[in-house]
Specification:
- The chain is of the alpha/beta class.
- About 40% of the residues lie in helices and about 20% in strands.
- Strands 5-4-1-2-3-6 form a six-stranded mixed sheet, with helices on both faces. It has a five-stranded mixed sheet with strand order 9-8-7-10-11, sandwiched between helices.
- α3 packs across α9 and α4 packs antiparallel against α7.
- The two termini are about 40 Å apart.
């Protein structure tokens, strides 16, 4: 019997809806908000207003592309957090109302868990290899950096986390310093391919254990560029590719150092990366090198599944549906990561 799950994602500035059958994607629609680019970052109030405009047409399009009627749905899954509260309220409120009106089970999904489980999605009905439990997962995005030991779909043990800024935030901050457009991560990645990653050296935090820190790296980059601009006003323009490559190298090196430690300390046979920053080519190459060095299999989502999308929400909902793990309309959205993914 087919299990059709509608996923709704609205944690930040992308409004997304997807329909899956089991773990196979039937549709995955994303409406991005361009308005934030001129502000150099997401403006929460503008984001929530745009979600209100986008939510109905996005869900309607997802159902049409999946070629199913809303009455064929088995359940509705939605992002309940972490994220921007105003944005989350739009998606969660609509999902609750729709599920209630159709008499369908409602499933709340943790955004960070969904990023990890995106690696279990399939496209076009094609079967693929999937990571075996327990596996090691590096989850990296604009708001979170977590190193997890994933024992089961919903048993994720935090081995390390950032104690201050996220890796994705470091990319965006570096891009802003260089005068690059928002979001800066993809632009840094593109420029880095043309530059020398060892031209400049930036501070990498060496914390005990498996925790991360990127605030010192951001400060190091800012002061370095500022000091060089005093002597040469054209310093950024003349060295933009090398600066991007060197900063990317430092961020990836910092991430890789802890992953390598975790590979040495755990019994995980598979290595997984997830989250928006997992689209970065430098990080993908570094993780492949580590996987090869330690004879592990590497799993990485396709580029369209690395950023925020509803298909990952739907697949998380699917695994909860199999367990009959349903929520109620009284579940409140939350902005910060839950303790079970932080301790």
């Amino acid at each position: 019997m087919s299990v059709y799950i509608l996923g709704v994602e609205s944690s930040c500035d992308d409004t997304s809806a997807a329909v899956i059958n089991g773990t196979s994607i039937l549709s995955n629609v994303i409406a991005s908000q361009k308005v934030h680019a001129e502000y150099g970052g997401v403006v929460p109030e503008l984001a929530s207003r745009a979600h209100q405009q986008n939510i109905i047409p996005v869900i309607d399009t997802a159902l049409k592309r999946a070629k199913i009627h809303k009455n064929q749905l088995s359940a509705i899954a939605y992002t309940n957090g972490p994220g921007l509260l105003g944005s989350l309220l739009v998606g969660s409120s609509f999902a609750k109302a729709m599920a209630y009106s159709l008499g369908l089970p409602l499933i709340e999904v943790d955004h960070l868990q969904a990023h990890v489980l995106a690696n279990f999605l399939e496209k076009n009905g094609e079967k693929k290899d999937k990571p075996a439990f327990p596996f090691l997962c590096l989850t990296v995005s604009g708001g979170h950096t977590l190193l997890l030991k994933v024992n089961d779909y919903f048993d994720m043990e935090t081995l390390g986390r950032t104690i201050d800024d996220a890796a994705g935030e470091a990319f965006d901050k570096a891009a802003k310093i260089l005068g690059l457009p928002y979001p800066g991560g993809p632009v840094i990645d593109k420029l880095a391919k043309e530059g020398d990653p060892k031209r400049f050296r930036f501070s990498i935090a060496h914390l005990p254990g498996l925790d991360y820190s990127f605030s010192g790296l951001k400060t190091s980059f800012l002061y370095f560029v500022r000091d060089n601009l005093k002597g040469n006003p054209n310093f950024i323009e003349e060295n933009k590719a090398d600066l991007a490559a060197s900063m990317q190298y430092a961020i990836v090196k910092s991430l890789g150092n802890k992953v390598e430690k975790a590979l040495q300390q755990t019994d995980c046979r598979d290595l997984v990366i997830a989250g928006g920053v997992s689209a970065n080519s430098g990080l993908r190459n570094a993780m492949q090198e580590l996987a090869d060095k330690y004879h592990r299999r590497l799993f990485v989502p396709t580029i369209d599944l690395t950023t925020d999308n509803a298909a990952m929400i739907a697949v998380c909902g699917y695994f909860k549906y199999l367990k009959h793990d349903f929520s109620t309309i009284y579940a409140a959205p939350y902005s910060a990561a839950r303790a079970k993914l932080q301790d």
